[in-house]
């Protein structure tokens, strides 16, 4: 909640044991890390905007575990959360991001020309390609914490920035509040519309407050570049198209992002970024690049192969259903994307997707011919 | 033990005093704990920038909250540091309900009703037929012996039930309470209930610790309450930390039941199959008095004042917090076009047999009193008794092909 949480100071009248959450049935990163000692150390702290430890962990207390994936169980309310609550968040970050240390540095590389290949993924198998990331605007608190006033200003700034784009990026903003039925149906048909969050992972973190105030969708005329405003992050930026030309998707992604960033910087509202955590986003799982680059690809045979999971792990890739993070696969078509976010650059992560998917499609073709793929199993990347 | 809370309670007593003084007393503007940055932010974001968009809304809060009231109250906090934005969040997030006009606003603590009186008083007037907390007093009467004709025809009435809520003074309400406070509520209540004897003796089942077998039994008895899924409750922060410190207590006879830490600190329910509403209400009053006595022995008391009666989370439950009702078969009357008007005039409400958010199935309805504040428990139960008897009379007359009449509307307390 905005404007200082003095409610927190009232809780300090109670002992740590009396306030410490019962995490005995929990299985998320926060629950694994949070001890009474850490809780005791951090519970009287607040960020300058008044975000507290209990705010950070509420979603993880309310959601013991998820059937498909190990959830993070904590969120940031503002940029400073990652500093003030580092005793909790650094170990969570380390667990989630392959041992990333508090002293490590993250590199950012949004130069699309550094990507090798990526324009020749077989469209008979790769149905669509997509790259997304998030960006937070410096000077404002994040979706779990922001007030209606802040959210509206974020929306206004975003609209101004996006409306000034031209060429392949020329587009239009559709506020969720005033969208017509026709516009809504079109956005659903295009698979662009995001709905009010129903996942308790998000609602328990306060991200659905005041819906749909200040929320909207912007996309270019070609429907290949899309921005979500005030959903789980201030901005989610998405580049996508049918087929397997990931190189083109990434080019448009990088160019568009950099144009947007330049406009925000001009108005003294750059993106939240630092050299340790890269781009700062609401969920610790999206720190670093915040990038998920992926394809919808037909892997009917490979997906039933005994070594499928191992291949994915070695390629540093992750599978999801075609409905996104909380879904299962349909008809042998998988969403395959990079597993990493922090500790490697955008180019490196998309390179892994491009190379890995290319390899898996070759494996699929081999399996279709009844041949073995044992010699193709990659080493750990 | 109350001792660890005496310092808290003495601080809260000032607030309780304020409650006694009535509405309009200035709220607290506690800035000694706010950081400078938070203060600066307030100036940067004037109330007008934060005023919610309520144009598509249809709840009591949206009807009452003007930009002027919002501007006046936004930066106030209760002694527990609860804010207006936190009170109204549920109403902002839930524009309206198809079956009933929702309240759209909750209290985080007893003092919310004082500090934010300018908003709450309007909502109370709207919801409770013009009851004005500034000038009126609410009567409390738990003497069940006064009820007459409280035995219904069991060919029509399948079950009888009375429920209310009680809050423990000195502890924050479910939207605001910390885990420690919620656990304290559980301890206070469960300790008191362990002192009940005779037909009220019973057992507590903690939601977190119950066995599968216990859970199944409670489901079969229709006693188990689940984690709230209604956004009216979840958006008001009432499901936090579930199922920590939540539980169900019931007597061995399964006729007296208490929910701990669901939408209120406690919900107290007396129920039986059949039509003996008088006995249900007797057990209700007797049980409530005993529980109150048991908590008072340990230095606690219920939240109550003479303007608002019993203080509960939702303004709709102020006063008596009492819903007395029956499941009754009315196959002919329910199809009569005058049914709704008859109910209205009798100050009764129909619901589906699944409770507040459900529609009726078949010919069986949940019929209960509409009002909560401004009339005593005895008055409301008598109204329900008289009303249901009238409905059964109508049903019988329709069965015989006789005429029925819409009764005159019951007089409100409006001045």
UniProtKB/TrEMBL annotation, chain A:
Domain Phosphagen kinase C-terminal stretches: 125-367
InterPro entries found in the cross-reference section: ATP-guanido_PTrfase, ATP-guanido_PTrfase_AS, ATP-guanido_PTrfase_cat, ATP-guanido_PTrfase_N, ATP-guanido_PTrfase_N_sf, Gln_synth/guanido_kin_cat_dom
SUPFAM superfamilies noted in UniProt: Glutamine synthetase/guanido kinase (SSF55931), Guanido kinase N-terminal domain (SSF48034)
Transmembrane segments: none
Keywords: ATP-binding, Kinase, Nucleotide-binding, Transferase
Gene3D superfamilies in the record: ATP:guanido phosphotransferase, N-terminal domain, Glutamine synthetase/guanido kinase, catalytic domain
GO molecular function: ATP binding; creatine kinase activity
EC number(s) on file: 2.7.3.2
Residues the entry annotates as binding ATP: 128-132, 191, 236, 292-296, 320-325
One BP annotation, GO: phosphocreatine biosynthetic process
GO cellular component: extracellular space
Keyword Ligase applies: no
Domain Phosphagen kinase N-terminal per the UniProt entry, residue ranges: 11-98
Domain of life: Eukaryota
UniProt keyword Nucleotide-binding present: yes
Stated family: Belongs to the ATP:guanido phosphotransferase family.
Protein name in UniProt: creatine kinase
Organism: Neolamprologus brichardi
Organism placement in taxonomy: Eukaryota, Metazoa, Chordata, Craniata, Vertebrata
From TrEMBL, chain B:
Chief site of localization: mitochondrion
Protein's cellular compartments: Mitochondrion inner membrane
Enzyme Commission numbers on file: 2.7.3.2
GO biological process: one example: phosphocreatine biosynthetic process
GO cellular component: mitochondrial inner membrane
Membrane topology: Peripheral membrane protein
Domain (Phosphagen kinase N-terminal): residue spans on this chain: 43-129
Molecular function as annotated in GO: ATP binding; creatine kinase activity
Enzyme class name: transferase
Keyword Ligase (UniProt): no
Domain Phosphagen kinase C-terminal: 156-398
Binding site for ATP: 159-163, 222, 267, 323-327, 351-356
The entry's keywords: ATP-binding, Kinase, Membrane, Mitochondrion, Mitochondrion inner membrane, Nucleotide-binding, Transferase, Transit peptide
Family: Belongs to the ATP:guanido phosphotransferase family.
Function statement: Reversibly catalyzes the transfer of phosphate between ATP and various phosphogens (e.g. creatine phosphate). Creatine kinase isoenzymes play a central role in energy transduction in tissues with large, fluctuating energy demands, such as skeletal muscle, heart, brain and spermatozoa.
PANTHER family cross-referenced by the UniProt entry: ARGININE OR CREATINE KINASE, CREATINE KINASE S-TYPE, MITOCHONDRIAL
Protein name per its UniProtKB record: Creatine kinase S-type, mitochondrial
Taxonomic source organism: Neolamprologus brichardi
């Amino acid at each position: 909640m905005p404007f200082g949480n003095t409610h927190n100071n009232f809780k300090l009248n109670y002992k740590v044991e009396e306030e410490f959450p019962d995490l005995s049935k929990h299985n998320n990163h926060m629950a694994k890390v949070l001890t009474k000692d850490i809780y005791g150390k951090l519970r009287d702290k607040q960020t300058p905007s008044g975000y507290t430890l209990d705010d950070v962990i509420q979603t993880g207390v309310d959601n013991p575990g998820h059937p498909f994936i190990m959830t993070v169980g904590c969120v940031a309310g503002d940029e400073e959360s990652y500093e003030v609550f580092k005793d909790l968040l650094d170990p969570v970050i380390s667990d989630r991001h392959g041992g990333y240390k508090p002293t490590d540095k993250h590199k950012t590389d949004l130069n699309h020309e550094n990507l090798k290949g990526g324009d020749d993924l077989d469209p008979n198998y790769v149905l669509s390609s997509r790259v997304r990331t998030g960006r937070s605007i410096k000077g404002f608190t994040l979706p779990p914490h922001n007030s209606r006033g802040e959210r509206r200003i974020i929306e206004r700034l975003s609209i101004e920035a996006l409306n000034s784009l031209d060429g392949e990026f020329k587009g239009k903003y559709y506020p969720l509040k005033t969208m017509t039925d026709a516009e809504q149906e079109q956005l659903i048909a295009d698979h662009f519309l995001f709905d009010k969050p129903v996942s308790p992972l998000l609602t328990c973190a306060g991200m659905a407050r005041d819906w749909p105030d200040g929320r909207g969708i912007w996309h270019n005329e070609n429907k290949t570049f899309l921005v979500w405003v005030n959903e789980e992050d201030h901005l989610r930026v998405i580049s996508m198209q049918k087929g397997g030309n990931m190189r083109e998707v990434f080019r448009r992604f990088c160019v568009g992002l950099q144009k947007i960033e330049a406009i925000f910087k001009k108005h003294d509202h750059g993106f939240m970024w630092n050299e340790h955590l890269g781009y700062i986003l609401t969920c610790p799982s999206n720190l670093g690049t915040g990038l998920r680059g992926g394809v919808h690809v037909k892997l009917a045979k490979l997906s039933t192969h005994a070594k499928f999971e191992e291949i994915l792990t070695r390629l540093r890739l992750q599978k999801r259903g075609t409905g996104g993070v909380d879904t299962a696969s349909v008809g042998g078509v998988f969403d395959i994307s990079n597993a990493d976010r922090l500790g490697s650059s955008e180019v490196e992560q998309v390179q892994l997707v491009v190379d890995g998917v290319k390899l898996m499609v070759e494996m699929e073709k081999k399996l279709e011919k009844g041949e073995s793929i044992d010699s193709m199993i990659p080493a750990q990347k | 033990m109350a001792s660890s809370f005496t310092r808290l309670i003495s601080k809260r007593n000032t607030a309780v005093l304020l409650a006694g003084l009535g509405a309009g007393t200035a709220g607290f503007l506690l800035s000694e704990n706010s950081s400078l940055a938070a203060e600066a932010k307030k100036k940067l974001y004037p109330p007008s920038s934060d005023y919610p968009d309520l144009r598509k809304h249809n709840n009591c809060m949206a009807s009452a909250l003007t930009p002027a009231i919002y501007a006046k109250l936004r930066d106030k906090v209760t002694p527990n540091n609860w804010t207006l934005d936190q009170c109204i969040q549920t109403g902002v997030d839930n524009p309206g309900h198809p079956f009933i006009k929702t309240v759209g606003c909750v209290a985080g603590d007893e003092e919310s009703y004082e500090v934010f009186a300018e908003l709450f008083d309007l909502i109370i007037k709207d919801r409770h037929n013009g009851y004005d907390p500034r000038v009126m007093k609410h009567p409390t009467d738990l003497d069940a012996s006064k009820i007459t004709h409280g035995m219904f025809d069991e060919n029509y009435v399948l079950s009888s039930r009375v429920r209310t809520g009680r809050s423990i003074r000195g502890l924050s309400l479910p939207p605001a309470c910390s885990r420690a406070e919620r656990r304290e509520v559980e301890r206070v209540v469960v300790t008191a209930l362990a002192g009940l004897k005779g037909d009220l003796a019973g057992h507590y089942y903690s939601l977190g610790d119950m066995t599968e077998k216990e859970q199944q039994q409670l489901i079969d008895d229709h006693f188990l309450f689940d984690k709230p899924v209604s956004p009216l409750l979840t958006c008001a922060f009432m499901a936090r930390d579930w199922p920590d410190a939540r539980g169900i207590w019931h007597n061995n006879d399964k006729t007296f039941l208490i929910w701990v830490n669901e939408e209120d600190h406690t919900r107290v329910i007396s129920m039986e199959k059949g039509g003996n509403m008088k006995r249900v209400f007797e057990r209700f009053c007797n049980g409530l008095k005993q529980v109150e006595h048991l908590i008072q022995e340990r230095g606690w008391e219920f939240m109550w004042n003479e303007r608002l009666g019993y203080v509960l989370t939702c303004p709709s439950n102020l006063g008596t917090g009492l819903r007395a009702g029956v499941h009754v078969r009315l196959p002919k009357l329910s199809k009569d076009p005058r049914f709704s008007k008859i109910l209205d005039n009798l100050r009764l409400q129909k619901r589906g047999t699944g409770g507040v958010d459900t529609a009726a199935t078949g010919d069986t309805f949940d019929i209960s009193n509409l009002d909560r504040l401004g009339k005593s428990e005895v008055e409301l139960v008598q109204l329900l008794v008289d009303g249901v008897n009238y409905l059964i009379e109508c049903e019988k007359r329709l069965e015989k092909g006789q005429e029925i009449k819409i009764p005159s509307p019951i007089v409100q307390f409006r001045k």
